[in-house]
Design brief:
Blueprint: E1 9-12, H1 18-29, E2 33-38, H2 41-52, E3 58-62, H3 68-77, E4 83-86, H4 101-129, E5 132-137, H5 150-166, H6 170-173, E6 177-184, H7 190-203, H8 207-216, H9 226-236, E7 248-251
Parallel strand pairs: 1-2, 1-4, 2-3, 4-5, 5-6, 6-7
């Protein structure tokens, strides 16, 4: 299926590995040129080499995307932002009793305020040109909170509430600009393994046992693969997805038990 986005430009955050890299890879396969960002330059250059082999232009900007100067460099590197994929590693797991105000502010900055700043920088230009796709990678924990991920639960839920109002503005939706959230469940990433490690320490069980139990709790009986996630992201960014906006799309192998 041709998604109709070949030749467009996308910014993909946290794109050196995991779900971010999978999204960048899927977009590149559709002919989308990329500006990719991540904090670690070494991993970012490895991703750059892989993505260039898919025949698209790739520009890299290393640095913490929550830093205003880094955001400015990322935006300056992109000739025209047609697609924005907001993504950031989640804050560490733990017990809320141990967190200080600074921990909360850091989580909010990375997982709520930074995506909003990037959206603000891009969205009006998208509306003027009559095309824009914004995807925020949040977490399945927005719908089914995980107790040790309180910082993530709070910050990402704040972004979700903000997007619910913004995506429905007629100036955006009426000009073919869509904003949706992708909520990953358990995918085979470093983030998942950190969560499993924390759960193992808290329970006194081995990581292997915790992981096996987690798999059994997924109706699909497995963890998701990043490229599955990337393909879904690319479809949402496609020309055919202009009627889909303001949605929270859960990819969790059927784990969420609710009807809605």
């Amino acid at each position: 299926m041709d998604l109709g986005i070949s030749g467009r430009w996308a910014i993909v955050c946290a794109a050196s590995k995991g779900l971010g890299l999978a999204c960048a890879r899927a977009l590149a396969k559709e002919g989308v040129n990329l500006v990719i960002n991540a904090r670690g330059d070494e991993a970012l250059q490895l991703a750059d080499g892989e993505l260039r082999q898919l025949g698209v232009e790739v520009r890299t900007v290393a640095g913490d995307i929550s830093d205003a100067a880094v955001r400015a460099r990322v935006l300056a590197a992109c000739p025209q932002v047609d697609i924005l994929v907001n993504n950031a590693g989640g804050p560490p797991p733990g017990d809320f009793r141990d967190w200080q105000r600074e921990d909360w502010l850091k989580a909010l900055d990375a997982n709520m305020l930074t995506p909003i700043e990037l959206i603000k920088a891009c969205v009006d230009g998208m509306a003027e040109r009559g095309f824009g796709r914004i995807v925020n990678i949040t977490s399945g924990a927005v719908k089914a909170p995980i107790d040790v991920l309180g910082l993530s639960n709070g910050a990402r839920s704040g972004l979700t509430g903000f997007i619910a109002g913004l995506a429905r503005q007629a100036r955006l939706a009426g000009n073919n600009v869509t904003i949706n959230n992708l909520l990953p469940g358990p995918f085979e990433t470093e983030r998942l393994h950190k969560t499993l490690d924390a759960a193992a320490q808290a329970s006194g069980n081995s990581v292997e046992r915790v992981a096996e139990q987690r798999r059994k709790n997924v109706p699909a009986q497995r963890f998701g693969q990043p490229d599955e996630f990337g393909a879904y992201c690319a479809f949402i960014c496609g020309a055919q997805s202009g009627f889909l906006t303001g949605q929270n799309l859960l990819l969790d192998g059927g784990s969420y038990p609710g009807t809605f």
